[in-house]
Amino acid sequence: MTKNNIVVLGAGVSGLTTAYLLSQDPSNSVTVVAKHMPGDYDIEYCSPWAGANYLPTGQPGTNHAKWERATWQPLKELTEKHPEAGIHFQESIVHNRKKDQETTTGKWFSALVSENPWYKDVVPDFKNLPKDQLAPGVDNAQVFTSVCINTAVYLPWLVGQCRKNGAVFKRAVFKHVSDAANAHHSGQPADIVVNCTGLASKKLGGVRDDKLYPGRGQIVIVRNDPGKMVSMSGTDDGEDELMYMMTRAAGGGTILGGCYQKHQWDPLPDPNLAVRIMKRAISICPELVGEGQGIEGLDIIRHGVGLRPLRDDGPRIEAEMIEGVAVVHNYGHGGFGYQASYGCAAEAVRLVKDTLQKKIRAKL
C-alpha cells in the first residue's frame, strides 16, 4: 500500500498531538522534525514550561471554545486509562474580582470566571461557591474537577506513542517551510508538511507571520503541595500579572505563576516578580506553607520563563500551497495549547486528509 508521507514540523504539544493523531492512521507515514525535542529547556520551546492544566478561556461560540470542548474528553480518558501519561485529576477553584474585568488578565480570563460559564456542562463536579465562602474582595468563585499535566512526563509519552505507531523523529532547522518536504525519513518528498512551529513561524521562510508575538510567562516551581488548583482573575500588582497554582502529576512539583507580558522576549527570570508570585500564592492559599510562614516556607525547585505563542486573530489552522508544497498550519495557541490540543490537532488532521484527497483527485 502506498503511504502518505507526512512531515510534522515542530515537537511542542501542538506538533506532537497532531503527529500522534496522524500516526494512528496506518495509511500515514509520519516524520516529526524539530529544532527542540522533549527534554530540552529553551526559551524558544514553550511547551515544557507550561503548567499545564484545563481552565477554559475561550469565549462562548468561538472556535477557541469549540477546540477546548473537544479536548476535555481525550484528556479525561488519558487520565483514567493511561497513568503513564503523567496527568491527574485535581480540584480547581477559580476566583473572580469584578474590578479585574478591564485588565489584560481579566479580559483573558473573562470566560473562565463567568458565573455561568459554557464549560460547566463539560467538566465534572461544577458548582458555584456560596457568597459566604468567598474571600474578601472576591465577587464570585466556582469549583470543579480539572486535570493537571506533568509536561516533563506527558511530552515524552506523546513521543513514545508516535514511535509505537511508526513515526520517526529527527532534529533539523529549516530556513523555509518548503525545505521540510525533503526531510521525510523514507528519503522521498513529503506529500504534505504540517507546520507546528509556534512562535518560530514569525521568522520561518514561506510563513513569516507578523501576527505572532510572545506572551512572556514566569513561574516558580516548588515542592510544596496545596492539594488543589487555584487561580484568580487578576492581581493588585499589575494588570499583566497573574495568580495561579497547580500541582503536576507524578511528582512534578507545584507551579506558581505568573505573568502575561505581551511583546516581552526576556528569557531571564525577574527576581522581584518571583517574590510577588510567591507572596500572592501564599496569600490566597496559606496552607501552601506552615502556619505563620512567608515565602521562606516555600521549597523552591527552580524558576522558569516561557514565551506563549500569541497571535492576533487566534490560532492559525489552515491549508495552503507554499512554493509547490502542500502545507497545513497549526500554530499560535497562546496560553491554551494543552487545553485545546486535541481539538486543534483534529482540525489540522481533517485539513491534511482534505488536502491529500485533492492531490489524489488532481492526479486522476
Describe what you observe in this structure.
The protein is built from 6 helices and 15 strands. The chain has one domain (4-359): NAD(P)-binding Rossmann-like Domain (Rossmann fold, 3-Layer(aba) Sandwich). It has 364 residues and is of the alpha/beta class. Strands 3, 4, 5, 8, 9, 10, 11, 12 and 13 form a 9-stranded mixed β-sheet that branches. It has helices spanning 13-23, 63-81, 104-113, 151-164, 271-284, 341-363; strands at residues 4-9, 28-34, 87-96, 127-128, 140-149, 168-171, 192-195, 212-222, 229-232, 241-247, 254-259, 261-262, 300-311, 316-322, 325-331. One of its GO terms (biological process) is D-amino acid catabolic process.
Write the layout of secondary structure elements.
Elements: E1 4-9, H1 13-23, E2 28-34, H2 63-81, E3 87-96, H3 104-113, E4 127-128, E5 140-149, H4 151-164, E6 168-171, E7 192-195, E8 212-222, E9 229-232, E10 241-247, E11 254-259, E12 261-262, H5 271-284, E13 300-311, E14 316-322, E15 325-331, H6 341-363
Parallel strand pairs: 1-2, 1-7, 2-6, 3-9, 7-15
Antiparallel strand pairs: 3-5, 4-5, 8-11, 8-12, 8-13, 9-10, 10-11, 14-15
Helix pairs in contact: 1-4, 1-6, 2-6
